Amino acid sequence: MNWLNSEAFALFGQHIKWSDMIGNLIGLIALALGWRRSIWTWPAQFLSGVILFTAFVTAHLSGSAGKQVVVMLVAVYGWWQWNRGSGRSDNGGDGHIAVRFATWRERVLLVASAALGTVAVGGLFTAYPTLSWDPWPDAYIFVGTIVAMYAQARGMVEFWFAWLLVDLVGVPLNFANGFAFSGFVYVVYGALVLWGMRDWWLRSRQPALEGAPA
């Protein structure tokens, strides 16, 4: 499997690794499946996490590697959450999740968890520099990913906002750490996130619109 961490080609003067490219392409597929509310988004996210984990470990980026472990764990949780029938639509039991906006209480908890988690993880990375080359951006990405994936597993529209905020920091962080394909893909993620955000927002309004008086 050493070929995964070898150079595939150069793009705009940046060296692209096989693991970086393959892992992120599968991640794009997972994001598209999430937009479609397909349960298969979770196996795709898990596989993407496995491949990117090998990439970051060999580059001695423990924080980013740890993020992929979280991605894999949350993917297992998301598969269970969506597959157990909670929030499914009545269109044949295909595992599609019913989407909604979070309550204000849930929003406060998500923001507070993101802020406190970033401070805690950033402090840990700062205390142990071998864990991360860029402690605070890395901590922000690490915690933001957890918050976004938890919100996705719960079918919250706000999950797209969380991903957008993660992307804004993820692009320069990945380029700085030599993962150019991740940086390029984060730009594509941004476009898909805006598209998915609109779709989920419209779907969250459908029950209310259907129940409105004519």
UniProtKB/TrEMBL annotation:
UniProt xrefs under PANTHER family: NICOTINAMIDE RIBOSIDE TRANSPORTER PNUC
Keyword annotations of the record: Cell membrane, Membrane, Transmembrane, Transmembrane helix, Transport
Membrane-protein topology: Multi-pass membrane protein
Superkingdom of the organism of origin: Bacteria
TM segment ranges: 16-35, 47-80, 108-128, 140-163, 175-195
Subcellular location field: Cell membrane
Protein name: Nicotinamide riboside transporter PnuC
UniProt family annotation: Belongs to the nicotinamide ribonucleoside (NR) uptake permease (TC 4.B.1) family.
